[in-house]
Amino acid sequence: MKIENNHLHEMLNTLQEVPARDAEAMTQGRAQFLAEAEALRPLPPQPIPTPLQKIKSIFSTPSIQRVAVGFALFLAFLIVGGTGVTFAAEDSLPGDPLYGVKLTVEQARLRNPLLNAQEKEALLVNFTEERIVELDSLVQQERYDDLETAVSTFHRYVSQGRDLIPAQENDPFDTLVDQATQILAPVPEN
Amino acid sequence: MTVESRLLKEAQAFNQQALAEIYDQYNQDLFRYAMRSLGNQNSAEECVAETFSRFLQALRRGKGPRQHLRAYLYRTAHNWITDQYRRQPPPDVPLEEETWVANDAGLLQSVAEKQNQARVRWALAQLTPDQQQVIMLKFYEGWKNRDVAQVLDKPVGAVKSLQHRALAALERLLAPVEEVKR
Fold first, then answer.
1. pLDDT tens string for chain A (190 positions)?
2. What residues of A are in contact with residue B20 (Cβ under 8 Å)?
3. Which whole-number Å values give the CA distances from B92 to B30, B111, B115, in the listed order?
4. Cβ distance B54 to B76 under 8 Å?
5. Closest CB to A15 among B16, B117, B171
6. How far is B78 from chain A, CA to nearest CA, in Å?
7. 3-state DSSP assignment of residue A185
8. What are phi and psi of A93, to 5 degrees?
9. Which ranges of chain A does DSSP label H, i.e. alpha helix?
10. Residues in contact with B169: Cβ distance below 8 Å, sequence separation at least 6, in sequence order
11. Residue of B nearest to A4 (CA)
12. Contact across the interface for B167 and A3, Cβ inside 8 Å
C-alpha cells in the first residue's frame, strides 16, 4: 500500500514494530484453546435403537443379566429335573427311593380344586389300579416286607373313591379289591 | 482440496491436531494485529484468546467459516477490538509536545515515539470500523485488495474507496502539530 504523504507514512510506521509476544503467554493461550476445544467437542451421534436392540440392551445390564440367567437356570432345573424325577418315580415300587415322590404327585393331583367328583373318582380308580400293579410286582419279586405300604395306600384310595360316589351296582372298586385279593393270596401269612 | 479447506473440515470435527495447527498458524499474526490496535500486551492476549474461543463456539454451533479462515479470524478479532473501543474509547492525545520535559536524548526519543504511537491509535479509532480494517490489513499486514474484500465481505471497488477515505481522514487527524495549530 503506497502512501504518498510522507508525514502520514512516517506516523503510521510508528506502529509497524510490535514487541515480541511473551512465550509463556503464548503457550498458556494455546493450551487454553485446546482445552476449550476438548470440552466443546460434540459426542458422536448415537444411532436410534430398534425395538429388538432396546430389549437386548435391557438384558445386557449386568444385574438384570444375572437375574435372567438365574431364573432361566431355575426353570431349567424345575422342568428338566422335576420332570426327570417324576418320570423316574412313575415305575418305582414301595421301598424304592423315589416311591415317596410318586405318592406325593398322586396326592397333588387329587387335591386339584378344579376337579369335579367324577374326575376325582377316575383318578382314584387309576391310582388304585397302579397299586394293583405294584402289589403284583412286589409279590413276583417276593418283596413281602414292602407290601404293607402298597396295601395301605390301596385301601385308602378305595375308601376315598367309594365316599365320592353313591352306591351303585357296578362299583369299579369291587373289581379292584377282588384283583388285589387274588394277587395277595400266595403271600405267606407272616 | 486446499490445505485450508482440509484444516477447516477437520476443525469442524474438533480434531485436536487440526485445531492446534490453526492456532499455531494464526496466533502470532492476530497478536500483532491486536497489539497495533490496542497498544497493550494484556489486551492483545485477551483479544487472541477471545478470537479463538469465538471460533470454537461457532464450530460447536455448526457455523463458523467454510472457507477464508484467515479472513474470518481477523474479522472476529477486529469485532472484539471495536467492542473494546465502544466500551472504553481511547483517551484524547494532547498535541502540545511541550507538555513533557526530558533531559535524556534517548528517553526523549522513546517518549516521543510512544506519544506518536498513541496518536496513531487514537486517529485509527476515529475511522469507521471498515476503514480501520482496510488500513490495518493493507498497510500493516500487506494484504491485497481481494483478501481485504473477503474480510469485509465487500467488492474490491468498495475496498479501494474505503482506503481513499481512510487516508484522507488520517492525513487530517495526524497532520503535523504546526499545521494543526495554524
1. 888 889 999 999 999 888 888 999 999 999 999 999 999 888 777 777 777 777 776 666 666 666 666 667 666 666 666 666 667 788 889 988 888 888 888 888 888 888 888 888 888 889 999 999 999 999 999 888 888 888 888 888 888 888 877 666 677 888 888 888 888 888 887 6
2. 30, 34
3. 26, 17, 11
4. yes
5. B117
6. 16
7. coil
8. -120, 160
9. 6-13, 23-40, 51-59, 62-76, 83-89, 99-110, 117-140, 147-164, 172-184
10. B123, B126, B127, B131
11. B167
12. yes
Contact B79, B87 (CB under 8 A): no
Q: ipTM of this model?
A: 0.82
What are phi and psi for residue A29, nearest 5 degrees? -60, -40
**Which residues have C-beta within 8 Å of that of residue B121, sequence separation ≥ 6?**
A15, B36, B37, B38, B39, B90
Instruction: Compute the distance between CA of residue A110 and CA of residue A124 in angstroms, rounded to an integer.
Output: 8
Query: B121 and A15: CB-CB below 8 Å?
Result: yes
